[in-house]
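can u do me a favor
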């Protein structure tokens, strides 16, 4: 096993990986940019190396600077986390060439899955169902013929795209030419590759993904699925495992197909196979992510596994310590991505100083966080502050546990999207599991009673705190207690410290 690992990332995932290193007796090496000097991952790591200015291309995306820090720190392996260089085959190759073990898949697996058309060609060979359409980019006339064959509406997609970029919905033949030209020019601009392919449009799909894990000895297993349909502008907001629409039979079929995808890619370490699921619960291969994902904690809860521990073990050459039949799923986990965004201002980023932080805990609550009270959230990076995960024996308990935790959560000094999750988890459609990729857009068009309801309550609590510190004042609607009546020698009935603390927490005054 490695003695020292460099984490080529920042924020909550860097803290998460550092914790796993600590638990495994592995020394951790953090890297940080100018604005991250006081970040939590720097504070928690055993060693920390400055790698440059805030701009990611001069720090977290700079392969030479990362490798230089690895050399100086005498790390043996590099964990990329997610985002940044985590799916960059050149980086994986550069790590290996420089003598560092890359904690992730091979560059070849990344390359095979990095292009959506190359992935589809490999899936066709492996007999994996994918959305009907082309496996490679087509010229316009071939595109028109295939569109007629599969039937409108169709979706044009950039082979080098992902996350909704470079996609065009085409509902009629008249629109195809302009959509095709636009998709190609956007793909060229965004990805430097103008290859565009076509798929049949799946209406109101769900996004369900299957976690897989391979070792360097050819074994691949699936670890259960995650429901990721609660998205806003192709950005996942809330994820859960298991999916409300996947039963044991569907899970086995989806898992076996995901394993086939992994084996076709000679895959090892953590990977995720994404599927689109239509309204009849048919599922189609969408793409494969060749990294550990943000939402991995929900899989950890229901499998009882630590996926980062497993990544380190696999990267050090160990075999998977279990067979497929050993994997048993238990309970239900739901993750909320806590972002520094202002829900009342179109979810614009809300960087700045965290003046107060009251964090939830208690049974079945996990918080993977990169923030602390007194830390300044930088504007330069993705605004993900923390992930709050609720676990229960079933979905209902997980929802109520997470709601309880969300009402304990208070971040002062900046705006967050915490209130959004209270709305989502209380929504009847969500509670009924009726979620597809359009769910959140529909919810956000409904009027929110969250702020209306909460404001009077907060005002009343504020008044109560004032009253409890000013003995003479009485609360509106409260009868004046005569001194004799309350048998307290003339002073008003003392407010218990529990109640005082609870009130102060509720308004973030502590
Ligand atoms: C689709 C689709 C419907 N039909 N492909 C969005 C980003 C990328 N992951 C693929 N996406 C979609 N591809 C076909 N043939 C609908 C979407 C889609 C979507 C998919 C998953 C999660 C959220 C989504 C939000 C909008 C559209």
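np, heres the sequence
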């Amino acid at each position: 096993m490695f003695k020292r690992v460099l984490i080529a990332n920042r924020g909550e995932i860097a803290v998460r990986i550092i914790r796993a290193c600590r638990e495994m007796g592995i020394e951790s090496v953090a890297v940080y940019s100018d604005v991250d000097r006081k970040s939590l991952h720097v504070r928690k790591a055993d060693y920390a190396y400055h790698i440059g200015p805030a701009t990611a291309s001069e720090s977290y995306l700079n392969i030479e600077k990362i490798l230089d820090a690895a050399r100086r720190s005498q790390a043996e392996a590099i964990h990329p986390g997610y985002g940044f260089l985590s799916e960059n085959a050149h980086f994986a190759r550069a790590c290996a060439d420089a003598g560092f073990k890359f904690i992730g898949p091979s560059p070849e697996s990344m390359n095979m899955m990095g292009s959506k058309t190359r992935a589809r060609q490999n899936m066709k060979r492996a007999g994996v169902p994918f959305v009907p359409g082309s496996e490679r980019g087509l010229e316009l006339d071939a595109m028109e013929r295939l569109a007629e064959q599969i039937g409108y509406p169709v979706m044009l997609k950039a082979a080098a795209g992902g996350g909704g970029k470079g996609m065009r919905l085409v509902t009629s033949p008249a629109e195809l030419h302009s959509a095709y030209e636009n998709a190609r020019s956007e793909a060229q601009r965004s990805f430097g590759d103008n290859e565009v392919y076509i798929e049949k449009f799946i209406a109101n799909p769900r996004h369900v993904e299957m976690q897989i894990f391979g070792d360097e000895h050819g074994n691949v297993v699936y670890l259960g699925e995650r429901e990721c349909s609660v998205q806003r502008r192709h950005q996942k907001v809330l994820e859960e495992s298991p999916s409300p629409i996947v039963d044991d039979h569907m899970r086995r079929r989806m898992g076996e197909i995901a394993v086939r995808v992994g084996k076709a890619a000679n895959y090892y370490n953590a990977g995720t196979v994404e599927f689109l699921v239509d309204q009849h619960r048919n599922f189609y291969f969408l793409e494969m992510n060749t990294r550990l994902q943000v939402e991995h904690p929900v899989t950890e809860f229901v499998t009882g596994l630590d996926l980062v521990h497993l990544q380190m073990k696999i990267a050090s050459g160990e075999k998977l310590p279990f067979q497929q039949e050993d994997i048993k799923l238990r309970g239900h986990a739901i993750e909320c991505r806590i972002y520094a965004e202002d829900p009342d201002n179109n979810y614009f980023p809300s960087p700045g100083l965290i003046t107060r932080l009251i964090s939830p805990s208690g049974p079945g609550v996990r918080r993977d966080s990169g923030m602390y009270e007194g830390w300044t959230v930088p504007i330069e990076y993705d605004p993900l502050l923390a992930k709050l995960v609720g676990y229960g024996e079933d979905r209902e308990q997980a929802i109520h546990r997470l709601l309880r935790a969300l009402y304990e959560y208070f971040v002062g000094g900046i705006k967050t999207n915490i209130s959004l999750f209270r709305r989502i988890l209380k929504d009847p459609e969500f509670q009924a599991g009726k979620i597809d990729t359009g769910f959140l857009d529909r919810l956000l068009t409904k009027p929110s009673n969250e702020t209306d309801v909460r404001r009077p309550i907060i005002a009343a609590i504020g008044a109560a705190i004032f009253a409890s510190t000013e003995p003479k004042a009485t609360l509106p609607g409260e009868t004046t207690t005569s001194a004799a009546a309350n048998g307290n020698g003339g002073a008003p009935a003392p407010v218990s410290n529990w109640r005082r603390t609870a009130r102060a927490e509720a308004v973030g005054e502590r």
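The two ends are 44 Å apart (CA to CA). hope that helps!!
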